[in-house]
Amino acid sequence: MAPGSVDINVLPGKEAGLFRQLVKQYETKQYKKGLKTADAILKRFSEHGETLAMKGLLQNCLGHKEVALDLVKRGVKNNLRSHVCWHVFGLIQQSDENFDEAMKCYKNALRIDRENLTILRDLSVLQIQMRDLPGFLETRQTLLELKATNRQNWLAFAVAHHLNGNHDVAVKVLDSYGATMDEEAAAHEPYETSEVLLYKAQILEEGGQAEEALAAIDAAVGKRLLKDRLGVLTGRARLLTKLGRTEEAEGVYWELLGINPENHQYHAGLRTALGLDTPDAQLTAEQRQRLSDIYARLQRKFPKSTAAKRIPLDFLTGEDFKTAIGAYVRPYLVRGVPSLFSDLRPLLADPAKSAALDALFEGLEASLVEGRGLPPLETASPASAMAPSTTGPPSPEDNPLVWVRLFRAQVANVAGRSREALAAVDACLADCPGLPDALTVRAGVLARAGNLAGAAEAADAARRADLADRFVNCAAVAAMFAAGRCADAEETAALFTREGEHTNNLYDMQATWYEVAAGRAYLARGDHGKALKRFLKVVSHFKEFRDDQFDFHNYCLRKHTLRAYMDLLRFEDELYSHPAYAEGAYGAIETYIQLHEAATKAAAAKAEAANGASAEDAKKARQKARKEEQRRAKEAAAAAAAEQEAAKKDGKPAAKGKKDPDPDGVQLAAAADPLGEAAALVQRLTQCAGDRLQTQALAAEVQLLRGRLLLALQAVQRAERLAGPGDASVHLLEAAAAFVAAASPAGAGHDAAAAVHALLSRRLSVSQAAESWREACAAEFPLSNLFSPSSLADGVAALSIK
């Protein structure tokens, strides 16, 4: 700096005090006051980098993102050596979800101020969010070295080693942390101390040191330091089983069942401790008898336990099963419990048990029709406790015959016997007209038989029979969407939302089933914008679930809930494998494929029209298209105005929240690169849900359309492994991939084409009629010119050469 010159980045005393006030106003969320303070500084020092950056941060908090980014960039440009500017730039990038860029900004800030605790904490949170585990470990170690008196730094350092697989080091860190805690501190924070000790036992167990983990729990129990009784008991039972101390484990599981006899995990643990965890179909007669004796004891000890009566139905066979199932179903039939079929449906997978259920309910129906009531049980046991049956029920819904027939209808429906199922449901409705459960089952039978319109009518009748039942309402909405009645479905769903906020309310409730059903209905109608809007809402929900982690990285360390924190991280790692995400992503990918095919067809038609039309005709066509677009815009504006006016007249409250600028997904459907958008979704699906056949099938289709032959080949091979070589859809994919390779221009991706052709040679005969391939592929990809007859000739020639 030249002598006598002034450094614009150094503020005099008054403005420096204002800057400190500005930082405090940001921390206390006084954003508008902060802007006034920043303007007061910039009035004299208009190019002060740190003030510009802080003003940009305040603007970002107020939602003015473009202005904020410009200000922060100016601030960084004016003061490249300021850790404040780089830190603020990182915060702006993080708010825009540019996490990689944000981490670079934080690291630049740390090069200037290596010991800034705030920047280090922000960087560590971003690293664990992005699962940069080695970087997270390094950052937490730096924080611990800088401030070893902070307990959160010790716990975070242990977590970092645990996540990196360094179990021994993590235990040593927790031991060092425990050495700093005296008895008085432990007594002052008993629950925090208990959580840390149980977390240490978890690390030891996951590190393969079950004996040490059990010893740690027992030592803490002896000192009365553990407050989570269930956590202690489940941990001890699990560890004792791993160590082969089965008698002790059995005793702990009996204690756990005394606390909650309905917990199926405790039942499974007891079976494992007894060495009876063999699959039910592979149990020996002696093992079945042992289990029968155990559950007879459980039924005597816990006579009201449903699990103690239901679980034996899975392993009992022959006459024992018939006796047990007869006793089990009676209370449900007498009380009219609709969920009986859902409870017993897994038993239908066993042909012998399915036949026994058919015989049982056929006999029950015959007895009830003849007026003899339910037949007496062969044996009396606690499992058969039930209200006495009567032949003259006080109301139709209390008639066991209705529920027997309803169960038989559902069994017949699952077996594909639609006529029999429909007859049984109609008999139920004849005895009890308007029964919502029977109408819902009738809708399911009609839907399975392919009568979607009739299913929607039956589901709507069930809804009208009980207007206060949300489940029946949802079933009606789903049936209407399946039948293509989108407007009726949306109006029906709105009955259970806040008035005037139908769309926002369903989005806030994260009703993924609704969005997938609506997307499928709109896609079937060819309304790609609305379909894409619904499918991408599902994708955005899971993005929100992912971002919700930010709220817990520091919170869980502060509250010492480390076991729950580890469960959260592991859940988030498997988040995108959830079926709901897959369904939404599948729908979006299919929509993008259709958009690409429509654009390809439109471009071909336009080119054909351009070749045969004069300049004057082209001008008229453009003017016509422009007028049509203006007309649609006016109609949309008029409809919106009419809706607002109607709402005012009806006195309805205005919808809260930000108005959606693209409610019909028009902008989404106008994507410049639909296949690129689809490929991004495919990439995540193949990483997280690659074990699904539909994932690989869509991946192959997208990559074929993009011309990425090796990626398509990889997807086809994975699909073959998942479905087996006999799957027809996989053969179709193989034929499509081979034909694309054969139709590829000479010299373009020769190696890829050869690799795909090698797959063809292995799975399909080259002598197979190429015309049948073309027809199959053309049916699958109707708008792709790769499968036209002209391309076929080139493909056959290429195949004969190869």
From TrEMBL:
**Pfam name, any one:** NatA_aux_su
Known PANTHER family for this protein? N(ALPHA)-ACETYLTRANSFERASE 15_16, ISOFORM A (PTHR22767:SF2), N-TERMINAL ACETYLTRANSFERASE-RELATED (PTHR22767)
Asked whether the UniProt record includes Transferase among its keywords, one would answer yes
Report the superkingdom from the record: Eukaryota
What protein is this chain from?
N-alpha-acetyltransferase 16, NatA auxiliary subunit
Q: Where is the composition biased (Basic and acidic residues)?
A: 616-635, 645-662
Give me the ranges of the annotated region Disordered.
Answer: 377-396, 610-668
Q: Name one GO cellular component term.
A: cytoplasm
Q: Kindly state which keywords UniProt assigns to this record, in alphabetical order.
A: Repeat, TPR repeat, Transferase
What the entry lists under InterPro entries is as follows: NatA_aux_su, TPR-like_helical_dom_sf, TPR_rpt
Does this UniProt record's set of keywords contain Repeat? Answer: yes
Where are this protein's TPR repeats?
Answer: 83-116
The record's section on SMART domains has: TPR (SM00028)
The annotated regions of Low complexity compositional bias extend over 379-390
Organism per entry: Auxenochlorella protothecoides (Green microalga)
